[in-house]
Structure formats: structure tokens, C-alpha cells
Amino acid sequence: MSTPLKQPHIERQIFQQRLWVAVLIVVLAFAVLISRYFYLQVINHSYYTQQADKNRIKSNRIKASRGLIYDRNGVLLADNVTAYRLLVTPEKAGDIEQQITALSTIIPFTEKERDDIRQQLQYNPIFKPLVLKDKLSDQQVAAFVVRQHQFPGFNTQAYLIRQYRYPIILSHVIGYVGKITEQAYLTADKSMYASDDYVGKTGLEKYYENQLHGQPGTLRTVINAQGKVLSKQIKQPPTNGEQLTLTIDLALQQAAYEAFGDNSGSAIAVNPNTGEILAMVSKPGFNSNLFINGISHADYQQLTTSPDNPLFNRSIKGGYEPGSTIKPYMALAGLFYDLIDKDYRYFSRGFFQLPGQERKYHDWKRGGHGQVDIINSLAESVNVFYYDLAHRLGIDRIHDFLQPFGFGQITGIDISGEKKGILPSRGWKRAFRNMVWFPGETVIAGIGQGYFVITPIQMAQALAIFSAKGEVNPLHLVQQEITSSRLPMDIKPADWQMVHDGMIAVVNAPNGTGRSIRSDDYLIAGKSGTSQVYGKSEEDIYKKSEDLPKELRNHALFIAFAPAEQPQISVVVVAEHGSSGSKAAAPIAKEIIDAYLNMKP
Amino acid sequence: MKKRLLLFPDPLLSGLILLLLTGGLVVLYSAGGWVLVERQMVRIALGLCGFLLVTQIRPERFEQFTPYLFTLTVLMLVAVLLVGVTVKGAQRWLDVGISIQPSELGKITLPMMVAWLFRHSPMPPRWSTLLAAFAVIALVAGLIYQQPDLGTALLIALSGLFVVYLAGLSWRLMAGISGFVMLSLPVLWTFLHDYQKNRVLTFLNPEADPLNRGWNIIQSKIAIGSGGFTGKGWTEGSQTQLDFLPEHSTDFILSVLSEEFGFLGVLVLFLLYFCIIMRCLFIAYHAKNTYNRLLCGALSLIFFVYVVINAGMISGLLPVVGVPLPLVSYGGTSILTLLLSFGIITAVHKHKKLIQQ
Predict the structure, then answer these.
(1) Under an 8 A CB cutoff, do A48 and B221 touch?
(2) Residue among A2, A48, A49 whose CB faces B120 most closely
(3) Which of 3.90.1310.10, 3.40.50.10840, 3.30.230.10, 3.90.1700.10 is the CATH number of A59-245?
(4) Which of A1, A310, B76, B260 shows its CA 20 to 30 Å from the CA of A137?
(5) CA-CA-CA-CA torsion for A328, A329, A334, A335, nearest 10 degrees?
(6) Where are the domains of chain A?
(7) How far is CA B159 from CA A472, B60, B72, B274, in A?
(8) Does residue B301 sit at the A interface (CB-CB below 8 Å)?
(9) pLDDT in tens, A102-127
(10) What is the pLDDT of residue B311?
(11) How is domain A250-599 classified at the architecture level of CATH?
């Protein structure tokens, strides 16, 4: 068989040559493999370690519970309660559409909710439970739990939700929380906020969001490739939100709210010695609990279309003319600028005329009050006295004197949304109305009318300063250290006493306009006022506001403090469309003062 | 002395293989638990019996029986296509009491047949012999490709081609053939099945599809890389134990070893493989006739190719082609075939020794 060409030695040589080439390739190949593994395992080790950890370790957030809110006496106002939500883990559930339909006898879903769920299901990460419905009722939870075995993958979960104990009377003070909006979440600090977190939307909840929110903790979860949780470990416990103790006295707040009866308006009670707001009412309030999980369309519609405008926080946003409640400040300005003194008398004929002008500025009392001094000008609220005084002061001095009391400025109280209002002046009118100031406008400014737009909170701040005889204590709702100061003007104690006496006379003198609220127990000082709702013709001045339809009636104002010798409480009341300050607003102020001074030990 | 020679004709090679098998079981325990280790041990025992039996056969007998074994293989491959059992979309199994995979048999019988064709041929071989060799290779590869199993077809063809290479095919001709193959690749591409195309595409850019096709290779690289220099420790690999690593007891078992024993473990494994391959090449180098040296050389080289392809594939150097890590991956047929190949190589060595004596 062997052919003559066969040469065993050459063949062996060729074979061995080929084998040596193969050996070289083997060595090279192993060198390449070893370099590859060295590259992956030694050079890129830390990168792949991270990747491996990312695979199996999921960091979950443990929500911090929101800080509780208490009144000044430790009564709980805003609580966190356990609520239940329905979730589904799509990977464990069957046909979710069908299951939700089957569920509808227990937990009904609207078409819109079902659409939302369909959409969310498309983007739901694997094995992540999807929230189907928040805030189930107790009956729903009970009914579901009994039939849970019929709905694999569906389960209920407890979570904490804000609950307001006194939702209506404190709705404008505390405000409410709601789910963070998508837009707000984009700019939020992601280490603090999750996309389903609650944030303060209004009131103190909003202003103190940073303190109340707390710092979330982290939960380390080890999962396998199927997403099954293998172990859990709290890596960092959450720090719960700080609690807030308000200066509000719940009982007083309640009394103040109820004192309004059916009226709308605002009342603010302050301790003038500390700047603490004891009660702050904007009536009507609303059920702030409705907002927490997204208010229903019907409820929202009702709130926004109600003529009473319950969502409007009158205390800080409502702009009113101060009316005659400005008179004590005017009298003080007159004393400060030495235009009047205790012996000064003004003869009231029932109207005032600027020199060389025809127009008559009328008093509320036809025929006038005769000879009046400072005390009586306040007790009887003599308009012409103040027309004349304002004319002599001039608008610039009035502006400069009133400004330190806080009129026309944001008080800086610890809820946001305050309106600035207007404290008129020559400069203001030029800047904002592009018009010159007319002397007649100074005249009516003397009785708090014209361009004035003042919020109740500004009136409350001014009154606190006024009743503390020049001591400025910034108003606040949450207990805190504040720095007191004094008014920049150096007003003589005797002058302070005289205007205080004038306000005491309003309530206690036989001719006082606020005599109806006189108290035997303590001395109340007060001043009524009327805030015009529409400009009246000259003749209408004498028409009784009570005879007009309610929405056209003037707002009734009353400011008061007590005990007058050593004030412990100062109160501002605005009763909307109440017509007469002394009739509609004064009794409310009296009730608040009574409630406060009687309950004090 | 005589008995030792009978049972362990080449204690060095046998020792290396036993070491590798033992190490493989240790890794397999971590990857799949005791159940898999038990089953694997049964297969290894069977394989070792086959190994010992084959070592006792005189190499002349292999040469003698080659045409019959080869004919049997071809018949079985045809039978598979006609009456085979379909698993995962491919007909690879023949059910005759026990399931057998004729393509595994081809891994040995094809190089045998090609070596047989060259046994009396002068070197470099004549054209007629070369054409016969290519025809035989194309026949077996073609039958296996029909199953369809492109990977195995290519690897088996390669084992035949190794024989042709070792037989002294001229470098010029080899260059010509390689060039032709390169040029025909785009044409071949159109004949590939979608899943085969996907494998290549995934290899080229695994990150493009991290959740589906690229998942395996990404997770494997993470397992290897996170193992570091010394590894996470036996049964401590998170990628393996938490199932992020796919097929970790079969094709990706080297990823498990890399994760748990680190770069050091990989070095030891590569050293074992390197020594086994070198020992086999050494035996081929000193084999006494053409048939023996061609067969031993080709079997050693194809074993080397398995190692490189598996180690390259799981580390992202080569496409995922579904080649197990030889002697380590879980799975019976491949271990049996490989141990039989080593039996043949050992028999060649033993026979040479006996002659020398």
C-alpha cells in the first residue's frame, strides 16, 4: 500500500512543524484570555462590583412621619392617621382589567381611574406594586380582606396620612397638604422627597414644610433576579418632622369662629405683649381634610363657586378700608405733631369744607356734634374732627406716621400669601396711578377712606403696637423667640394715654358708639369702623346701610383691647357686609375678649 | 508496574483530568447544588469507565474500525433528521432506549475518518486525498447544520480541518481557502437563522439590548468582574446565587468560578487546561504513525478550541455560541465524548510506551 513517495521522516518533520505553530497559537490564545480576565477582574473590578450591587441591592425610602401640630395648650390639631391603599403587583396578578371589574362591587373605580391605571401599568417597573386607589374606607378594607384570596397579586397597604382635627375653623391657619405636583418634584431635593410624597400646599403646612417634612430613612433590600425580596435592613432610620406648637388657643379660635354666626369675615386676636396670635379666623372656613388626597371635582366646584368664597383667606388677603378704626392713630398723629392737645376743641357743624372749595364733607350725624375734644371725637367717632385734622396733617405726614405701624406692608407673619395692601401717599399715587394728589383725598383719608387697602392682619399688627403703647412685637403663629422693638417716633406717654382713654370712652362713656359691649368685669377699649363697599353719592351717606341689599352693605369693623389698663388681648374684627361696626363687629370682639379673659385662670 | 501501566497509562494526563473534573464538581455544587453534582458524578463515572476501556484498545484497532464507525455516525445523523427528537427547535437527539446525540459521536469519528484518509498519503497530501477529506467534512457538517445546529457543525468541521492542517496542507492553499471563506461570509449571513444572526449581533453590541439578548453576556461580565482578584468565596457569588447569571451550571459555569474564586481561580483553571493541551500535543508529537499523530493532534486542538471559545464567549470576547466549558460544564454527552477522546490519546501514548519497552 505504501507509495514510494512516502518519506516518514519528512512527514514527521512537517507534522511537528505544524504542531509547533499550533503550540504557539495555544500560548497566544491563553495569553489573550488571561489578559481579558485580568482586565475584567482586576482593572475593572470596582466597576463590576458596583454593577453587581446595583443588580441585587435596592435602596427603598422609609418615609418620615410628618411633624404634628399642637395648639398653645398642647391640644393636637394636625395628626397622622393610618389609612389603607389598594395595590397590585402585576407580575403576580392575572388579568388586571378583569380583576378590577370583579373588584368593583367592593371598591368601585371610575373610568378615568381605570384609564390612569392602564397607563401606569405600561411603565410599572418589574415587581413594583402599583397603587390602584388611596384612602379606602374601613368597610372597603374589611370587604376586600375577606375576599383577598380571589385576587392574587392584590393587597392593601397601610400608610400615614394627614388628618386635621378641626378642619374648618383652622383651615386657613394650618392650611393643608397634598401630593407633590410633578413640576414641584422635578425641582425638589430628591434625597428628601419621593414622587408620591405629601407637601404643604397652603398655610402653616406650606410655610413650615422644611421643618414638618422630616428626613426619610433608607431601607436596603436584597433581591434576586426574579425581583424576589431576600432580606431587608434599615440602613438609616427616618427622622420624623419637627412638631409645631402654635400660639393659637384652640378654645378661643373656636369661640371666635362661632361668634360670627352666619356672617363672613375675619377676626384676629393677639397678645400685644408678645405678638402671639391667639386666634385667627377667616370665615367661612372649609374642610381642609378634603384636599389631602386630591379633592373631588364636585367638592372643589362647590368651594370655588360659593359666593362666600370659603377658600379665600380674608385675614391675610382680604383688603379693606380701615374706616373709622384709623381715627385713634390719626388722633395720635395729631398729638405727636402738636396739632392738638388735651385742651383742644373742635366745633362740629356736621360738615367740613376745604378753604375756597364748595364741596361739603359730611359727618355721619346730621347737624354735627357741637364742641368736641379728642376723647369725644373718638367716643362719638366725629368725622369732621378728623377731616380737619387730616387736612392740617397733610397726606405725607399721615403716611409717614402710619407706616411704622405696618399699614400697607406685609407683616411677615408665618404663613405665605399675604397681600401688601395700600397705604396711600403722594408718592404712591404718582407711581401707581400716575396722578397728582388732591387735597380732598387727604380729607377722607382722615376717616380711613379713599385709597386705603388694609388687611386684617395689618390692622391686628397695628393694634398690637397701639395697645402696647409703641412696643413692636412681630405677629406670629408658631411659638418662637421674637425681638421686640419700639416705634421710631418718640410718642409721649401722656399722648398714648389720651388715645387709649378715647378708645375706653368709645365703649364705656355714655355717648360711646361701642357702649353696647361694655363689661363690668374689665375695662374694654375699642373703636368701630365702616369699610365702604361702594362709593356712595352725597345723599346716600345718610341712608342706612342696613336698608341696602346684603352684598352692597358696608363691612363692619371693630378693634378692641382689654383690659385697657394692662392689655392682654387685642382684637380686630371685620364682619363683611355687617353695615355697622358697633352693631355687627363689636359683639364679636366682645365675645372673643370674654372668652379669653374668662378662661384665663 | 504492569498493573499501574494498565490502569493509568499516562498518570500525568489522567491526574490533570481528574483534578479538572474534581474542581468542576466543586464549582458545580455552588452553581446548581448537590442534585446536579450527583448526576454529574454518575456521568463522570460512566465517562471514566469508557476512558479506561478505550485506553486498553490498541491504536491499530481504531484505524481498522474507523470507516465502520464513521459510516455508523453518518447513518445516525441521517436518522436524526428523519426520526429525531426535537428539543428547543432543533433535532439533535436520537431516542433509542436512551437519548443519544449523534453529532457528539461525530466529534470523534470525523477526525478519525479524515486521519484515516491521510494515513498512507504522502505529505503534503495529494489533491485527490484532499478532495476526499473535504467531501467527508462537508458531509458531516452539512448533516449537522440541517438539524439545525450551526455551532456544532462549524466545530466538527473545524476538527476535520485540523487534521487537514496537521497533514501538511500547503500554507498558500490555506490562505486561499481562508480568503474564500472571508469573502463568502456576507453570503452565508443570509443563510443564517434569525437566532443565529441575533447571537452575532448581540456579540457585537450586547449593551444595545440589555434586557433580552444582551442580558446573558452583561450579567456574565458583571459576575467575572465583580469576582476580583481572589473572588467572593465559594457559594458566595451574588450573581450566581441570586440567579442574575443565566445558565450558570452549563455554558456559564466559568463565570461562576470567576465570581467565586476570582482571577486566581481562573489562572489555576487556565493552567490546568494549558497543561492538558500541552501534554496531549506532546503525545501527538511523539506518536508513531501518521494516523495516530493526526488524530491525537486534532483531538487536542479541538479541545483547546472549546476552552477558548467558552472562556472567550462568557467574557465578551467572542459571540455566545453555546459551547460548554469542556469537562466542567454540567451535561453528560460532552463529558463522555471528551473522556473518550482522552482515552484514545492515552491509548496512543501507552502503545508507544509498550513498543519502546
Answers:
(1) yes
(2) A2
(3) 3.90.1310.10
(4) A310
(5) 80
(6) 59-245, 250-599
(7) 100, 21, 18, 19
(8) yes
(9) 888 888 888 888 888 888 888 777 77
(10) 95
(11) 3-Layer(aba) Sandwich (3.40)
